[in-house]
Every structure is written in structure tokens, then in C-alpha cells.
From TrEMBL:
This is Ribosomal RNA small subunit methyltransferase I. PANTHER family: RIBOSOMAL RNA SMALL SUBUNIT METHYLTRANSFERASE I. NCBIfam families: 16S rRNA (cytidine(1402)-2'-O)-methyltransferase. It comes from Mucilaginibacter panaciglaebae. Keywords: Cytoplasm, Methyltransferase, rRNA processing, S-adenosyl-L-methionine, Transferase.
Length: 227
């Protein structure tokens, strides 16, 4: 009987290629095939490190159908690595469903440690790190206000991801639901040449980004509510 293969979740740099680990490179070179969120995005990374493997697309639009095929390959004994466009797979990226399906069939799953945007943003914020909650991207429409109202009472540090074209809208909403004087820390372009972290009240940070570049992916840390 064929021994099942193993599913590896391999973090990739969120900007700086020097953050790729030796272990991640070894795994990507040893597996039978690689799953990528966007094969066009991953191609330069794999080429840079001279990783020559078959690469298949695995993203949010084909995750369910793709996972069924991947599980079959794993059961046939193939070792497979999953990477996202940047950071750790399954953290605000595809991966959770595939992991769950693999575990249903007792397939070994191994997640390598590595780059994740919210960790340096949290540490850079200066807010308490002993307890925090990670929210990722807020719902775009349905449930968004309800989530804000719930989180307004949260006493732990709260972490959000946000895209540049929605940053100002999100800061406006935070001023409404958390209050203009709530302390926040906004990091962008983490690990890249123009990395920046802006700290202050919601109102101060909102005013800052009205006259400064709103480029790159953003991580917003919000101080917990104090009594």
C-alpha cells in the first residue's frame, strides 16, 4: 500500500527576499510539486532561488475543486508544498480548506515558520503583545458595522489587514466606532525599502495619510479599550 505524501505550508517573503529561510528553500526543492496562489507572482521568487518544479494554481476561486485533486496526489505518495503570494499560507490567504481536507485523510501536514506581516507590525506598534486578536480583513459590506461595534469593546490589541484603496475609508470608520482619540499604529511596505510605521490617534494617523503616499499593503494595530 502506498504511503501518503506530506503537505507542507511554506511561508514566502512579504517583501525582502532575504527573509526566505534555508529550510523553506530545501523543502521547495525536494517536494514533487508546488501549489501557488498566483503562478505569475510566484514565478520570479522560484526563479530567483533556482527552484525548478511543477507549479499549479491554488487560490480562493478554485480552492474546493483543487483541494480534491491535491488530496488524491497526496494519497498517491506525492509530497506537495503550498505557498501564497506573500507570507504564511492560510493566514488571510488560501490554505485552511486544503489543510482540513488533508487531515480528514490522515495526511501529514507540516507548516514551516516564517514571514507573516502582522507579527512585525504588532511588535513595532508598541502596544501590548501578551494578548491580542487578529481580525485580518474586515467584511467588505455585510457584517462590517456589526464587527466594528463588537470590537469597540475589545480590551486586547486588535490587528487588521487593509488594502491601500480602502485605507482612508477604514480609518474614517475607526474614528466613528473606536473614537478619534484611540491609539493606533499603521505599518506599510513591511520589510521593503520604503517600510513605514505611523503611530498616533486615529485622527492623527488619518490626517497623516491624507497628505502622504498610500501605497503597499497595510497592517493596522489598534490599542485595546481601556476603562
Amino acid at each position: 500500500m502506498t504511503q501518503p505524501g506530506k503537505l507542507y505550508l511554506v511561508p514566502t517573503p512579504i517583501g525582502n527576499l532575504e527573509d526566505m529561510t534555508f529550510r523553506a528553500l530545501r523543502v521547495l526543492k525536494e517536494v514533487d510539486l508546488i501549489l501557488a496562489e498566483d503562478t505569475r507572482t510566484s514565478a520570479p521568487l522560484l526563479k530567483h532561488f533556482d527552484i525548478q518544479k511543477k507549479v499549479f494554481a491554488h487560490h480562493q476561486h478554485n480552492e474546493h475543486q483543487s483541494s480534491n485533486e491535491i488530496v488524491k496526489f497526496l494519497l498517491e505518495g506525492k509530497n506537495i508544498a503550498l505557498i501564497s503570494d506573500a507570507g504564511t499560507p492560510a493566514i488571510s490567504d488560501p490554505g485552511f480548506y486544503l489543510v482540513r481536507e488533508a487531515l480528514k485523510y490522515d495526511i501529514a501536514v507540516e507548516c514551516l515558520p516564517g514571514a507573516t506581516a502582522f507579527v512585525p507590525a504588532l511588535v513595532n506598534s508598541g502596544f501590548p503583545t501578551d494578548k491580542f486578536c487578529f481580525e485580518g480583513f474586515l467584511p467588505l459590506k455585510k457584517g462590517r458595522q456589526t464587527r466594528y461595534k463588537f470590537l469597540a469593546e475589545e480590551e486586547r490589541t486588535i490587528i487588521f489587514y487593509e488594502s491601500p484603496h480602502r485605507l482612508q475609508k477604514t480609518l474614517d470608520e475607526m474614528a466613528t466606532f473606536f473614537g478619534e482619540d484611540r491609539q493606533i499604529s499603521v505599518s506599510r511596505e513591511l520589510t521593503k525599502m520604503f517600510e513605514e510605521t505611523v503611530r498616533g490617534t486615529v485622527n492623527e494617523v488619518k490626517t497623516y495619510f491624507e497628505t502622504h503616499p498610500v501605497k503597499g499593503e497595510f497592517v493596522i494595530c489598534v490599542a485595546g479599550k481601556t476603562n
